Amino acid sequence: MVEITRAPVARVGVDLSKRALQVHAVDRSGRVVLARAMPPDRFYAWCAELPAGCLVAMEACGGAHHVARRLQLLGLDARLIAGHFVSPYRMAGKRGKNDANDAQAICEAAGRPHMRFVPVKTVEQQGQLSVHRLREGYKCAFH
User: Domain 2-141 is of which CATH architecture?
Assistant: First the structure.
C-alpha cells in the first residue's frame, strides 16, 4: 500500500480490471493520498469510509455503470469519463500504459473544470442498449 499523506480524500481515479481495481486518490490540493490495487470487496469497503459526495471517477465501459451505481448508493459522486478524454492525461505516454498510470490519468482528468462526463446508465437503459446493439448486428449481417 502506498499511503503518502493522511489528508482526507477529495478525488479518486479508479482503473477497472478483471481481478483488482487500481485506485489513485488525492486530497484537495492534489497531493497523493493513496495509490494501490485492491480487490473489489476491499475497494467497496474503503469507499464506504470516504466522505459523502467524494468524486470517484472511472473510464466508461459496460461494467463501469454497475460500479458507479453501487458507489452512488454509498453517497459518493461517481462519474464516468470517455477513454479518449483520459488518454491526454497519461503521464508516461503510450509506452507507460498500465493500471497505475491509467488510474492516475483518470484522477487527473476528473479534476479538470471543463471535463465532460458520461451519464451513468440504469440497468434498464443498459438492457435496452444491448437489445439495440443486437438488432443492429442482425441488420448488418443480412446486408
Answer: 2-Layer Sandwich (3.30)
